[in-house]
């Protein structure tokens, strides 16, 4: 006789499913895990009994005990940063497509990431994807040696058996410099983030090296936060310069800085004609009519595709070979660097 499905779910166990279905508890486990031999008819009967009596396997408990639950830890920070929120949305969709479940760890700031990485190890997830902060070598080793995968986005993983993929930020900075020099600009300003921000520092480095290789000089303004408010403060400082001292080309290592700078520096008809401006990240607002900001688009689909390939290899899943015609390089730090794309709009001159 099938038990009443109104029975409180907390009191129903896998033992009840096995008893009502007249099978062993091992068969119940196989029916839900998909592992081991079990006939389709028996599996269907077990699943029907479980539904009738209101029992569902506790994936979280199974993870803690065996590590078999399909959980993936995702560590991120500062979701008020629009591009990171876009990345997270894309990544979560991909995780679900892999038939895995994301377990999100959110840090208030990058400095808190190492502590959260320690916490992920307590949950016995299949692996860890890191989108923020710095990964210490000892922490990476602990994750890898525990049998988990470690994948990082836009930061080095600091372990030879982990996987790191990033936008080629340094090359993006060099591309920005070339575009502005080809326009005939001669006085350059970089609106950069904190000096310890990995991506911003590389974009700044690529830009500065390219400008100096052409015998030109460049001014760098570091900002503690890469926000529109910080961009407006940079605009106020720009207006404070004598007219002959003002740069005629500005490269912002983040779109938010560029958009705030535009708000602060624009006249009634937009930014001055004798000023070119580039951003980075291609945030949605950069295409809005008040801005029409020339910027760089990060190759998100390319980077996530490469990460999926790595995770599938780690999980021994059948897959097609990963093919990509997009330019990339592998750095000395082991990171796969994918080339960003210039999205040209009205804040720079059209390319001939």
What distance separates the N and C termini?
Answer: 80 Å
Q: Percent helix among the residues?
A: 25-40%
Could you give a short account of the major beta sheet? Answer: 7 strands, mixed
Poorly predicted regions are: 1-9
Structural class call reads alpha/beta
The number of helical elements comes to 12
CATH topology of the largest domain: Rossmann fold
Number of strands: 13
Rg over CA atoms, rounded to whole Å, is 26 Å
CATH superfamily of the largest domain: Response regulator
Order of adjacent strands in the largest pleated sheet: 2-1-3-4-5-12-11
Architecture (CATH level 2) name of the largest domain: 3-Layer(aba) Sandwich
Give the C-level CATH assignment of the largest domain: Alpha Beta
Strand/helix succession = HHHHEHEHEHEEHEHEHEHEEHEEE
User: How many separate domains?
Assistant: 3
């Amino acid at each position: 006789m099938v038990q009443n499905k109104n029975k409180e779910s907390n009191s129903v166990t896998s033992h009840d499913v096995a008893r009502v279905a007249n099978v062993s508890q091992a068969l119940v486990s196989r029916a839900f895990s998909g592992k081991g031999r079990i006939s389709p008819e028996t599996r269907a009967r077990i699943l029907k009994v479980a539904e009738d009596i209101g029992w569902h396997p506790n994936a979280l408990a199974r993870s803690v005990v065996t590590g078999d639950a399909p959980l993936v830890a995702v560590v991120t920070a500062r979701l008020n940063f629009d591009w990171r929120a876009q990345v997270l949305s894309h990544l979560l969709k991909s995780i679900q497509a892999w038939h895995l479940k994301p377990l999100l760890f959110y840090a208030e700031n990058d400095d808190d990431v190492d502590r959260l990485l320690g916490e992920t190890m307590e949950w016995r997830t299949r692996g860890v994807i890191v989108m923020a902060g710095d990964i210490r070598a000892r922490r990476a080793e602990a994750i890898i040696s525990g049998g988990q995968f470690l994948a990082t986005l836009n930061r080095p993983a600091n372990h030879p058996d982990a996987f790191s993929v990033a936008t080629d930020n340094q090359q993006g900075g060099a591309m920005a410099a070339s575009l502005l020099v080809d326009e005939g600009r001669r006085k350059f300003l970089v609106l950069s983030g904190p000096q310890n921000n990995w991506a911003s520092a590389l974009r700044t480095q690529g830009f500065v090296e390219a400008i100096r290789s052409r015998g030109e000089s460049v001014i760098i303004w570091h900002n503690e936060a890469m926000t529109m408010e910080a961009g407006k403060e940079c605009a106020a400082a720009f207006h404070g310069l004598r007219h002959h001292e003002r740069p005629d080309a500005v490269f912002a290592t983040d779109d938010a800085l560029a958009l705030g700078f535009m708000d602060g520096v624009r006249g009634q008809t937009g930014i001055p004609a004798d000023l070119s401006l580039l951003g980075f990240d291609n945030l949605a607002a950069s295409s809005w009519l008040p801005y029409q900001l020339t910027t760089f688009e990060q190759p998100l689909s390319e980077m996530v595709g490469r990460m999926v390939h790595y995770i599938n290899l780690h999980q021994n899943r059948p897959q097609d070979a990963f093919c990509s015609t997009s330019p990339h390089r592998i750095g000395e730090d082991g990171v796969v660097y994918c080339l960003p794309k210039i999205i040209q709009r009205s804040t720079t001159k059209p390319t001939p």
